[in-house]
Amino acid sequence: MTSSSHSRVAPASLPEPERRGSPLSFNRAIRSFVEKRFFRNLISRTGNFSRTKWLGIHIRQNVMDLWTIQETIAELKPDVIVETGTLEGGSSLFYAHLFDLMGTAGKILTIDIQKQHNVSHPRVTYLVGSSTDAGTIEQVRKFVAGAKTVLVILDSDHHREHVKKELDLYAEFVTPGSYMLCQDGVMDVMPKLRYPDGDGPLPAIQDFVKEHPEFQVDHERCERFILTHHPMGWLYRKPV
Ligand SMILES: C[S@@+](CC[C@H](N)C(=O)[O-])C[C@H]1O[C@@H](n2cnc3c(N)ncnc32)[C@H](O)[C@@H]1O
Asked: How many domains does the chain have?
């Protein structure tokens, strides 16, 4: 066998369309290149969504991910959303306005280690404290008591160790059939967004899923609009 004929032989384990040099794998490579390029530009142009606003209030969210959150809230109609990471209050206000529009009785508990806003809304309770402190967890437990559907959104300190603690502690509040959204795993896949001092949420999610068979990653929801800040972020709690 000559070397040129050898180079045309694809590994037997790959299905036909995946063979190197096939039009399909070429299209896939181009698509992946364009998506990554566009995502990098989007993040750079928006200052990683640091200037995005909801009705004039800063909301640090990728707008495509926000749409997925909106769809999930409309689907689940949760009684309670627990959010860690309030910052300027934009995300909790957005969730409160969705409840207003849906006309349900939903309420939100949002937790931050410091108060950095002047926002208020009758549906939102603002709790100041670390999300992983025993006292905070006790207050969350009281807040969700009796709720039929609880959605948890983790968006505080994104260091791996903190995220893993949050995942472990907040798992109990997620009602079967609902979700825990662990935000910003993107920082582990996009070098510019990495913490200089360690890993972010993605390895924490991977560890969590291995240890918690009652949860599974909803990949369709994660990749709904292709470009997401929350790879592997939508964790579905299986019905009992
Ligand atoms: C990414 S921001 C939250 C953005 C907000 N959810 C939004 O969409 O606009 C992260 C927030 O987490 C808070 N934070 C950091 N460490 C925390 C901790 N241990 N417990 C609770 N909040 C924490 C920070 O003060 C910061 O306001």
From this structure: 2
